[in-house]
Specification:
5-stranded mixed beta barrel, 206 residues, single chain, alpha+beta, two-stranded antiparallel ribbon
Length: 206
């Protein structure tokens, strides 16, 4: 209530001083406002008396001022007017302060590029970014390739094992057949000699 709000158009006369306080950031700088008037006698525009103001800003506005404003830049300041009178060296001096609500560059005298401030940090549970060139499809193909290699290894091992087992069975079968043939071949001459002996005996008896 009963606050005087003013809007100043001028230039930053000093650099922005910024410091941290218990309640947040604080910034201040001196602003010079020089009116321009048309001189009828000389028929041209002339500068009037320059007034100086101390501009104060707090918290987010203070930190943004420190990173945005330089000496000599044209500004528009909107805020609360504060007039202070104090005695210095035996004399009373008047100081005019502006508690800034908003500050911007005067675009009638140039251009500016706005950058939005991102507040807060990303959540610790946020998904981590993938390396460049990677994708879900690549991971799926990698998993499928691994499964195929594993399946191929198992199939190859099974086929090799079956072949070895088949070769062993064939070898054992061949050995059994070979042994039987050799046994039959070995018994053939003995049976023939025995039959001839029996035939000779029968002839002698008769």
């Amino acid at each position: 209530m009963n606050e005087t709000l003013v809007t100043l158009v001028g230039n930053a006369a000093t650099a922005v001083e910024f410091r941290e306080t218990a309640t947040g950031g604080m910034a201040r700088f001196r602003m010079a406002a020089t009116p321009r008037r048309w001189d009828r006698e000389k028929q041209h525009w002339a500068d009037g008396h320059t007034s100086f103001y101390t501009v104060w800003a707090w918290r987010t506005l203070a930190s943004n001022l420190a990173g945005s404003v330089s000496v000599g830049e044209p500004l528009v300041v909107h805020g609360r007017l504060k007039v202070r009178e104090e005695e210095r060296d035996g004399a009373w001096k008047t100081s005019v302060d502006i508690e800034a609500v908003a500050v911007g560059h005067d675009l009638t005298r140039g251009t500016a590029a706005f950058r939005r401030v991102v507040r807060g940090e990303p959540s610790l549970t946020a998904r981590r970014p993938r390396p460049p060139g990677s994708s879900d499809r690549g991971e799926a193909e990698h998993r499928e390739a691994g499964s195929s290699e594993a399946g191929g290894g198992e199939a190859g091992g099974g086929e090799a094992g079956s072949a070895v087992a088949g070769g062993g069975a064939a070898g054992r079968g061949g050995a059994r057949r070979g042994g039987a043939s050799n046994g039959a071949a070995g018994r053939g001459p003995e049976e023939s000699a025995h039959r001839q002996k029996r035939a000779t005996e029968m002839v002698s008896v008769s």
